[in-house]
């Protein structure tokens, strides 16, 4: 169970951390998160409405990744899990709480910011911990200093994370995701500004995915046609001609295929910081992928894959930036 939940968190990249005062706002808030592309919530137990909010979200949206945060002891953990929480997050390391979660196969991310706490986590069999409060504890530099000592441990930083420093964290391979409050601040929830929350979630998702246009592939008839086409773009616009094996390039944005390739008109390569996160995001939107086109890197991670269907005559594939 833990690995599945951790993987879901990793594929999202960002988990909204929510303190909610009115359980009646739980359902519209959950809808706002889902509409914004972040179907997840770490609902803190530090408000009286936390437990009931988890219950309502989990019941109404069973596919949503709902967890409980600021869990301080086993009693709160039991209540959170009974309400439907799929994972537990605590601000610090509590031996009894961690032991209970491990024994009962409940994914738990205890707060750890120093070597002593991380040693406890590793010895308890945990693979991921919360790094809290992140910015106040030295941020990404502290994590990078500690990570080599615990090679099998990964981190979810929370506290002071925002759109400005988000990718500083996610750019490090030991970070599975970041917890954040900036898209679900109390004034937005209490003001029931659901559209604004959705917009901030979408902004966070786009920040995490980092979509950009890598290149456009033109289907040419043969090698001579590919060379001629690439040379024409070089002549007209100064996009330097570069010969290749299966295609020639004009600059870095125009690929001229030496024969008919995928797509009636050609293909479009969309770059992303994480192909696997981008694929998960697009699947939630209903897109499917052609497994025969999947390419893996040396670590077994997807570095490129095509959508199953063309868009306006162009095959589209995701490429690792």
* N-to-C CA distance: 31 Å
Quantity of strands, as a count: 16
CATH topology of the largest domain: TIM Barrel
Please count the helical segments.
12
Shape call: elongated
CATH superfamily of the largest domain: Aldolase class I
* Helix content range: 25-40%
Task: List SSEs in N-to-C order.
Answer: HEHEHEHEHEHEHEHEHHEHEEEEHEEE
Describe the structure.
- By secondary structure, the protein is α/β, with parallel strands linked by helices.
- The protein folds into 2 domains: 2-209, Alpha-Beta Barrel (TIM Barrel), CATH 3.20.20.70; 212-320, Roll (2,3-Dihydroxybiphenyl 1,2-Dioxygenase, domain 1).
- It is 37% helix and 24% strand.
- It contains 12 helices and 16 strands.
- The chain has helices at 2-12, 26-35, 50-60, 74-83, 95-103, 115-123, 139-146, 166-170, 186-190, 194-209, 223-237, 275-284, and strands at residues 14-18, 40-44, 65-69, 88-90, 108-110, 128-131, 154-157, 178-180, 212-219, 241-242, 247-250, 254-257, 266-272, 289-296, 302-307, 314-320.
- Strands 10-11-12-9-13-16-15-14 form an 8-stranded mixed β-sheet.
- Helix 7 links the parallel strand 6 (128-131) and strand 7 (154-157).
- The longest helix is centred in the middle third of the chain and has 16 residues, at 194-209.
- The protein starts with a helix and ends with a strand.
């Amino acid at each position: 169970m833990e690995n599945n939940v951790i993987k879901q968190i990793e594929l999202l990249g960002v988990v909204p951390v929510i303190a909610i005062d009115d359980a009646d706002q739980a359902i519209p808030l959950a809808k706002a998160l889902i509409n914004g592309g972040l179907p997840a919530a770490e609902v803190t137990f530090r408000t009286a409405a936390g437990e009931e909010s988890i219950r309502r979200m989990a019941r109404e949206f069973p596919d949503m990744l709902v967890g409980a945060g600021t869990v301080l002891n086993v009693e709160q953990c039991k209540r959170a899990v009974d309400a439907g929480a799929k994972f537990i997050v605590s601000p610090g390391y509590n031996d009894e709480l961690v032991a209970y979660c491990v024994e009962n196969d409940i994914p738990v991310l205890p707060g750890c910011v120093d070597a002593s706490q991380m040693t406890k986590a590793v010895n308890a069999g945990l693979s991921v911990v919360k790094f809290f409060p992140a910015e106040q504890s030295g941020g990404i530099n502290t994590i990078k200093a500690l990570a080599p000592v615990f090679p099998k441990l990964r981190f979810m930083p929370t506290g002071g994370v925002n759109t400005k420093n988000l990718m500083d964290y996610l750019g490090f391979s030991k970070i599975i995701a970041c917890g954040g409050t900036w898209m679900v601040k109390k004034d937005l929830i209490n003001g029931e500004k659901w559209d604004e929350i959705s917009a901030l979630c979408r902004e966070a998702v786009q920040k995490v995915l980092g979509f950009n246009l890598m290149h456009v592939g033109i289907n040419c008839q043969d090698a001579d046609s590919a060379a001629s086409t690439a040379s024409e773009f070089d002549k007209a616009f100064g996009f330097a001609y570069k010969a290749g094996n299966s295609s020639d390039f004009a600059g870095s944005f125009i690929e001229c295929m030496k024969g008919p390739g995928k797509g009636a008109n050609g293909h479009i390569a969309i770059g992303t910081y994480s192909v696997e996160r981008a694929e998960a995001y697009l699947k939630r939107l209903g897109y499917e992928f052609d497994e025969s086109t999947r390419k893996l890197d040396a670590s077994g991670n997807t570095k490129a894959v095509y959508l199953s269907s063309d868009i306006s005559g162009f095959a589209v594939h995701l490429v690792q930036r």
